[in-house]
Here is the input.
Amino acid sequence: MKKVILTTFLMLTSLIYSQEYSRITIEPSIGITQIQDVASFAFANYNIGGRYMLNNKFGVRVSATYTDNLENYYSANIQGIVNVGRVLNFEEFTKAYTILLGVGGDYTYLHKIHDPKIFRENSNFHLMTSIDNLYKINNKLALKASLNVVTGINDLQESDLYTTNSFGINLGVSYTLGKKDHIDWSVKNMDPIIIDSTKTIIEKPVINNYITKETDSNYSQNEYVFFDNNESEIKATGLNAISKIVNYLKAYPEKEVTLIGYASNTDNTTVDYDNALSEKRAQVIFEKLSELGISAGRINLEFRGKDADKIKSSFDFARRVELIIR
Here is the structure.
């Protein structure tokens, strides 16, 4: 048993500290619970929960609640979480506020019944939903205001007082585990992309996927394909850059392209991992160029692992493949 506990602890510690963003929060709160159709009942509740985000849009939460003034009344639930603020790109308006929507199941237990016409004895399983408003205070702490609804808390239809739903309003905090900023607040970089690496000079620029006239200009910058954290999937902006290079190479068959893959300069991944990731990123660009009709003999493939020149604030720029015309 001790080995299991130790192994679990080490795995959780590794999970917390090996990510670019923190993903786990502890979420205590207090509030009131109102039972539908029972106007005289308003119960204080105490809630403690834990949330893990798979990415900045989706996650899962487990929590437990004790309701005061009802002896031995407990509930526990598990919910799928959607960060509505990030799905709808609220970061265009604020980087400190977001909304979480939860849907899941709630399991309640009442050991002692005060009024059998209102509450079912022992246990019940119910559908529940929640809406959380989060306001970020700092990298560790966010204020939370929540509304939750639990359906079907009583189905004693023979009772004169048939109660269906309960409503809870809670105030609390969301406390981040780990030293890094929580992934709730990761946002798209709205600034223009500026790459500080040396540009390669080519004869004609490629603009909007078309080769320009020889008199328009005599040079063009390299193209870049950027990736999400730990990913090698080509995004729409990357396809646009690839299209420009393909058009140029088809117009000038004597030219070649060099692909150089990079990974972000984090301190929580190994050299081998970053080398493999940068190689995989370059490889997917190679395959896309081949798919679009560029022969393998005109494509040079390189990978360099961590981009040591890119500090934390430039991680989004480091996750890239450079396409250099030669």
Summary: The first helix runs from residue 2 to 17. The mean pLDDT is 76. The two ends are 61 Å apart (CA to CA). Helices lie at 2-17, 84-87, 236-251, 271-291, 315-318.
